[in-house]
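Fold this sequence, please.
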Amino acid sequence: MTIFNSLGSNYDNRFVQKTLRASNKKENATRLKHYLEKRYAGEATLVYKGREAIRLALRAIARKGSAVGICGFTCFAVYEAIVKEGYSVVYFDIDQSLNYSLETVKKMLEKHPEMKVLLIQNTLGYPAEGEQITKFCREKGIVVIEDLAHCIGTTYKNGKEAGTVGDFVILSFSQDKVIDGISGGALVIRNKEWRIQNGEKELLTINSQKQQKDRYYPWFTWMIRKTYRFGFGKVLHFSLKKMKLLQSPMDNQESDAIHKLPNWNAELIYQQYTNLAETAVHRNKIATIYAEHLEKNVLEKSICNTIDSSANLRFPIFVEKRDELLLSLKKKNIYISDTWYDAPIGPKKYLSRTDYKNQCPNAEVIATRIVNLPTHRNVSEKDAIFIVEEINQWFK
């Protein structure tokens, strides 16, 4: 038994075959665009990466020189997208729910009146105070962008789905996300006050080499996972990385261009939206196993209490001596060292490229203690119980 947190976590042989055969017909993108517009009640633009959707949103808002408030426990791609569009960043510290609160928003606005835009993240799918925060922001003239990179299918406290309360919606369909199209993103403009000036005319076509990498990524990672415990998978993984044949979510980081979503990726994304309810049931079931059977001292109550309303992208626990636990699990063929995030703006290796200066002490502590357990389709209930037993045994 070999269990991974990422590395093609959502793929099985059937998905591999779908990817290799996926059609490049234009109607695939048209169908997905119309679906997103109906689901999130706005005007949709399909792009190659979620970070590109953030940039399009900020261009539409056109308030360069002002600041964007973000969760102080997020991906470097979010930070980079913002500064590339001429905005500065205000970091909001989090609590144990992995999100910032309405009270934090109020306090930070007093300190930073230049903040005119706010991103709501719903970290790992667990809901923030989305509706309350949005209501407050509207009263203050702050534009709200709901970032659904972690949380497609999440619902807020009052029952509204994430993506149905803000002015803009950002979607990411990259590797290991709830909806996994290997690559992909979208912007949905819900507030008719704004629009993209040149529409899709300014979007470039992603080159064929990157598209081929995407096409074969599910096949490569499926082969690696299937043969990892026998040694061949390790060699294959090393070789493909060395030859730069494995597509990474952080690829294309230096590009200033914004690209349109290839039609064949759109086909994969649409199919997964049609299966979203089934995916949600599975992730809920796995997260519930962790919540009910793990030692209570590693659990966070606010996380456990929101499983039913969460997308449960991963299930976080909090431990001292994290590296020792990860090493112990690795010896049992459980590979979950990609802690997501290992710094307030992660991955940690990118932190020096930001202007972060210890604004989020809670996030810094959490980044040293968090372990994210897998909930994806390739983790069965039996696997989840096995993971629980190994973690509980480690504590003993």
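Residues 10 and 377 are 6 Å apart (CA to CA). The two ends are 23 Å apart (CA to CA).
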